[in-house]
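Hi F.,

I've been meaning to write this up properly since the lab meeting, where we talked about keeping a consistent format for the predictions we share between groups. The idea is simple: the sequence comes first, exactly as it goes in, then the structure tokens exactly as they come out, then a line or two of notes. No screenshots and no reformatting. I'm using this chain as the first example so we have something concrete to point to.
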Amino acid sequence: MPSPPRSPARPQRRAQPPRRVPRQPQRTVRPPRPRRPRWAMRAVTTLSVVVLASAGIGHAVVTSLDAGIARVDAFKDMKNRPRAGHGMNVLLVGTDARDRISESERRAYRLGGQPCHCTDTMMIVHISDDRERASVVSLPRDSYAEVPEHVDPATGRRHTPHPVKLNAAYAEGGPQLTIATVENMTHVKIDHYLEVDFTSFMKTVDVLGGVQVCTATPLKDSYTGLDLAPGTYTLNGGQALQYVRARHADGASDLGRMRRQQRFLAALIERATSSGVLLNPMRFRDVTRAVLGSVRADEGFGTDELLDLGRAMRNFSPSSSEFTTVPIGQLNFAVKGLGSTLKWDPAASGRLFQALRDDKPLSVDHPHRGPRPAPVEVDPRQVRVQVENGTGTAGLAKRIDAALATAGFATTRQPTTATVHNARRTVISYDPRWDRSARTLAAALPGSELHAVPGQGQLIKVTAGSDFKAVHQVRVEDPAKPEQAVLRGNEVICSASEGA
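Output, unedited:
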């Protein structure tokens, strides 16, 4: 049975000088030396002062920030931990805490309901030893896990090892049990713990002026209020929260949500590194004060670590980061008392975490030209398409028909001329019973408008508008068996070819 029709609606788019150090006069008489050009002397002096001033200001700024971070003793009394590898591993945890959310924000961004006091998102962020690469591994919240033996911090009761869903470890034993469980599953030693809630997430996005995301297919989730038509958007903090929380926007549920979280994190890194924030001590102070004022970190995550990360990110580019999800061996793994869980692939996940321990890149270093094929639910060979030209550009329909056929779609190979000749927007007309096929076609024609026509039948009609740029390649992806790919940051952020 086809999935119910979706009617995407497009939300509104949003478009100290260095201190001069006085030079002391030289009284010792020395032999004359060749004179250096004055511009060179001025340049060297200015550069030295700027570097020294920036270092001093940066350290003072970060030291003041360090005092304002909420602390948690995340590693207290932990024993039998994995051996340390190379590089730095940060366990980044997003909780569903919403205590500081205003009532207007609750209504606007669908943040009602009771929090579960568990982790909504969990990632291992590995910073390479040379500080030139960040590897991000998403850990599904519904992963089958076994918490190690521990003592309940509230009651003092000792618990033996037992199975849970991974996100429940936080509810049962807080950050300490969460870290212990992750280390037990991955054999990767966690060096630092960083906890972000809804408020700190929204502040991070807003203080950066919004983050750009793009989608080739409609994203609509009635639970979170997410409603994006194909295109490119600059999301504010609340909208971004809807984007990363949505679990019902496609058939991939939580795994699809993690892919969007990875895309968003790549875009966030790109925004932070390209906006000049990291090169301006005062701007850096304002941003980090807004962000770190509402997060929790382990007691060892202090001034030196913040400065180290700041220096590393100054050299970062989108291609410096890589993203993946822990390989899943079995979906819907039923466990008595827990329900359906996700069981990791032991061999593939073992290789992944060994790469983290050895400080090795997760992706093969190969050039990739052009945007990656967009994941779709329906094989394009099953999507029947009729193309017609809605513009005055001769041969446009024939060109689109040929390009869609090359991409694998079952076109009629008989393009026609539409009754209108001044269409500005490319429109995909489809029967709601074939909405999944229409979304697959929309992924190949990013920026096109979907128009439901009940009773039209299986044949989908494309009316080419003057906004047409190119046909994008697509790849079939079973929502129940997502591809365990490693993607570079530059492969998942919006490209210039993806229209607004």
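Notes:
Residues 380 and 409 are 5 Å apart (CA to CA).
Residues 1-57, 496-500 have pLDDT under 50 and may be disordered.

If this format works for you, I'll send the rest the same way.

G.
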